[in-house]
Amino acid sequence: MPADVATPMSTAAPRAPRLDPKDLTYKISGGLILLGLAFWLGVNLFHDPAQFFTVAIDGLKNGALYALIALGYTMVYGIIQLINFAHGDLFMLGTMMSAFIITTVFGQKAPSLAGYGAFAVAMIVSMAFCGGLNIGIERFAYRRLRRAPKLAPLITAVGVSFVLQFVGLHWNGSGQRQWQTVLPNTQFNINGVVIDVKTVIIFAVTIPMLLILTWLVTKTKQGRAMRATAQDQDAARLMGINVDRTIAFTFGIGGALAGAAGLMYQQVVGSTAYNLGYQLGLIAFTSAVLGGIGNLAGAVLGGLLIGLIQGLNDGLSYGLGQQWSQSVVFTILILLMVFRPAGLLGKNVTEKV
User: Fold this and answer.
1) Does a structural domain hold residue 265?
2) Which of 85-89, 231-235, 273-277, 325-329 is the least confident region?
3) Which has more pLDDT, 55 or 15?
4) Beta strands in 192-291 (DSSP E)
């Protein structure tokens, strides 16, 4: 009898997945854009390293302010998926409250021990004022619209924004007001890199706030309630969570952050204006979208990146200049949305129905 011969199983190599020409085009385009950006940064760094790092640090200072405002946007959106366009005007009122407390109430107009004390009091009052005002706005303007079509609360937010602007117009006047500040105007030089003391103070405020906020959301009972409410409000109610109180608490925290940002802006820039919330609010919202709206770390990352981009474009020898600053920022945002719609740290999620 012939020997049994084992029939080998088929060992054909699996086919490689076909590369979509559209994906290939996106990857090549993204690579070319990053290469061009790296080349531009490299040329400026080689041309004048001291200038490069000086304007970069100054841009990060503005970025930290954007991040403080963006945190309020992203917190509210993360809970109830509402883009609160009134948040920028809440920040604007925070600048005016800060100036009122420091200059009018305490009469402080220069760096001093009393001025630093007034600064600390203004921080508490501004955060409490903006936080309480935001809770009131949620209670009377947004709460009844939670189950309404999404366009209704969005239009309401725009209406609230105009109301706050009207308050700011009567409080501040139609023009820009200049104020003396109590923070030191000194600078220090490290190998030709000029660093403003106010930049250090801004980061000394922003970083602890981000850490406290992250701890609050991830480690506390209230934070678990916030995350549960963001995931499913009806299920959160069934688990015994007071959804109304949780949402009001979120608005309060977001408003308090806007108040802190208002104080820092007023002390760093030294001016207030009734229409300030529109411009800064739009940039802060862009920061939240850039980083991934709903993500706390993403809001901070987006704010720092936008501030850095503005600083480099405005201050470097080879840049488009300040007149093109907004165009550069929003062009980068559009490109990012094309390649990564969820933002830098955001996640693509399916909408709940």
Assistant:
1) yes
2) 325-329
3) 55
4) 193-196, 271-272
| Choice between 269 and 317, residue whose per-residue pLDDT is larger | 269
Angle, CA of 126, 63 and 136, to the nearest 5°: 30
Determine the angle formed by the axes of helices 49-80 and 296-315, rounding to 10 degrees: 150
In a domain, 16, yes or no: no
d(CA 142, CA 47) in angstroms, rounded, equals: 53
Residue with tokens 């920040």: 91
| Listed residue (93, 303, 280, 117) closest to 206, CA to CA | 303
User: Does residue 234 lie in a domain region?
Assistant: yes
Domain containing 253 equals 49-339
Residue type for 10, please?
S
Asked if 213 contacts 253 with a C-beta cutoff of 8 angstroms, the reply is yes
Q: What is the reported pLDDT for 319?
A: 78
Is the model's pLDDT at 206 over the cut of 70?
Answer: yes
Structure tokens at 68: 């403080």
The token pair that represents 108 in the structure block: 């402080």
Total length of the chain = 353
Q: Is residue 21 part of a domain?
A: no
Tokens at 297, concatenated: 């770390």
| pTM of the predicted model as reported, rounded to 2 decimal places | 0.86
- State how far the Cα of 158 lies from the Cα of 134, in Å rounded to an integer: 14
With tokens 């085009």, the residue in question is 25
Report the C-alpha gap between 137 and 101 in whole angstroms: 23
324: DSSP letter: G
CATH number at residue 214: 1.10.3470
Instruction: Note whether 126 and 101 are within 8 A (CB).
Output: yes
How many structural domains compose the chain? Answer: 1
